[in-house]
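User:
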Amino acid sequence: MTSTDFRTDSGRQDAFGRRVAARLSAGSAELPHDVAERLRAARVQALARRKVVRLQGAVSVSGNQASLGYGGDDGISLWGRIASALPLIALAAGLIAVHTIQNERRASEVAEVDAALLTDDLPPAAYADPGFVQFLKSER
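Assistant: Predicted structure:
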């Protein structure tokens, strides 16, 4: 849904509300005083609830952007800040753990290769000799 959709929906709702209010107002002249007074009180309550809902609305539209936000002017509390930082901390800890585990595995693999080379019957220089590679290929 784009920001223009939000504006047009809000405009449609406001226009519908005005039409309903006009029809109710037109028919209220014929009602007894006590019924008209109860309707007036109900309208005041409805408007008060509408204002509360508007203050707590989480979508704000500016230009071509719509964003979600917290209700109220006091910002995010300490617990809210801690809760919003927890996923970032968990992600960083996970990345550090993966990096450490991979480094340990690499070191273990290199150590195994070094141990195999040093305990083998051939000297390590033989593996670097191009003639030895040819010898291995001709043996098979």
